[in-house]
Amino acid sequence: MSLVSGLTSQGTSELALNVRDLSWQVESRSILSQISFSIERGEMLGIIGPNGAGKSTLLRCIYRYIKPDSGHIQLFGQEITHLSSKAFAREVAVVLQDTPHHFELTTAQLVAIGLTPHKGPFELTNSADRVLIADALEKVGLTHKARQNYEHLSGGEKQRALIARAIVQQPKLLILDEPTNHLDIRYQIQIMELLRSIGITVITSIHDLNLASAMCDKLLLLEEGKCISYGSPKEVLTEQAIGEVFGVCSHVMTHPQHGNPQICYFYGYETGYETGYETGHDKNYEQGQVNKTGSVTLEDTGHDD
Hints:
Elements: H1 3-8, E1 15-26, E2 29-40, E3 44-48, H2 55-62, E4 70-75, E5 78-79, H3 85-91, E6 92-95, H4 107-112, H5 127-139, H6 155-168, E7 173-177, H7 185-197, E8 201-205, H8 209-215, E9 218-223, E10 226-231, H9 233-236, H10 239-246, E11 250-254, E12 261-265, E13 288-290, E14 296-298
Parallel strand pairs: 3-8, 3-9, 6-7, 7-8
Antiparallel strand pairs: 1-2, 1-4, 4-5, 9-10, 11-12, 13-14
Helix pairs in contact: 5-6
């Protein structure tokens, strides 16, 4: 998908977020360079790329932890710099990669912090608030941990509690930095399905390309602070792009359930195998040929099936 056409073909009234020409540098070193993309209301955008690509830095610019050197970020048609801190908190919730420590709070009390943008200085929690908290805990599977000290939760449980806090905040845009870290595969899928089901716009960085393919409406592929590709999973997750950006050999097929790309990786990078990435041909796979871009072409080997 052409990045320019993807930005100009849709009306701004339907955009939740519109990022144009975003750049940020540290000591003359470019960290983000001319990033442009947009998200329609209700979409889930996955930000993917290798370590150091700029995924977390981009998210920090969006939730105003970092002030970019140039470019524009519009949230529902407004420049984010024009919003007060409280107004921004009513619109945007953030779940970070690292869970906070030293909280002498129960899980339910932590989740209740999400009510803060909607409360006055001395306003107390009411019965409607308690229903919101209970519903959020149920959605993330932590009802039985409501009265337990947050510090005593496992890493995965802490992450789910923070997502429950974000749900209680009732934002229009939810930003998450690798929310499936520390979670087993069941909860990775459940959390991503939950994020799709809550009816708000979601931006999340994610390492698992197959999970991103299955759950995200759009993907933004970054490398060294630059946008390499932006579009649907089918448009972004090609064998050539995976090989060039991640440096691995893969075969991309269609997933039988959701119809988006399913990536099969080839192995042997550190074991002395001829992996194909270095040689252009993998002798360990008699029925396939792997070229230097990482794509795989099946060939007739003369063997019966």
